[in-house]
Amino acid sequence: MSSDESEAGLDLGFEEAGEGLREEDRARLPLGGCLRLGRFAGKSIGDDVSQKVPRCLRVVALQTAGTGCDRYVWGRWWSSCLADLGADIGVLTETRTAGEAAHAAACQGMRDGGYAAISHNTPPAELPAQDATAAGGLRSSGVVLAVRAGHAPGWTDVAWGPHGRGVAASLRMQGGVEMRVIGLYGVSGSCLPGFERRADAVRQEADLNAFVQQQAEWASQRNCILLAAGDLNSIADTDLDVWDGTAQARASSLVAELQNCGLSDTFRARHPGIRGFTYVAIGGHSASRLDAIHWRSTPSSDCTLLNASIVWQ
Fold this sequence. Notes:
Blueprint: H1 5-8, H2 23-28, E1 35-36, E2 43-46, E3 51-52, E4 59-63, H3 71-84, E5 89-93, H4 100-112, E6 115-120, E7 143-148, E8 156-160, E9 166-172, E10 178-185, H5 199-222, E11 225-231, E12 242-243, H6 254-260, E13 264-265, H7 266-270, E14 279-280, E15 287-288, E16 291-296, E17 309-312
Parallel strand pairs: 4-5, 10-11
Antiparallel strand pairs: 1-3, 2-17, 5-7, 6-7, 8-9, 9-10, 11-16, 12-15, 13-16, 14-15
Helix pairs in contact: 3-4
């Protein structure tokens, strides 16, 4: 990122993948020299993202598993994680944050950590009476959108998705370019056998897919770049996205809906043959790539995809 984006908006080099971008072409892009991230930890599967070029936009998706109780501390912790990874935009999923006070505390923690955030989940009054862990309940939902606080315009045109599993908002970039960002937390188990026998889960998936359709149409009407990120809980390729498990690709899954809306998987675009996973089952007997970043450009945009990576360990 350039150092003056607080006045002009975020730069759009889009450092998340590189479909068709040759290395010699990448070297000519006026992005500035690489800067090593001093607190970056983990192994990059795909491109090495332990460094960052200044004039680009880095998007990071993190699955939080509802860690912690104090929502302010929670916000500070996850904002520090985004900062360590060099994130300009962050999508946090399975936040398990609900209630006005909890949302406010989480957002304040993120603000004090350098990010302006939107937090969304199912209101406590709408939780299933029988069990808070049921599909759509407090312990299985919640999404946060975060952008570096230096981005002066902040989030606009917020749309709240169903069941606390989606939220969308827009950012104004340099040159007047608009980006629509959708944070998504897909229904758990949607790529496992027997999912379609769970009527409530299937309904929630259909509602979330409809929300994606609405946002994709909204972005088309506004000629926006469209970005969708989070824990999608679904896969597109059983050979590449699954290790020793029973996961299956479904035509009505969230990933399939993103593809139907014209979005491409940034990791797969950059690394068509790499097997990489973001979820390992308890016991380590299987793994899947459930978390992803998808995007769709516009005919008038010169936005370029550069890198894509899964940060392991």
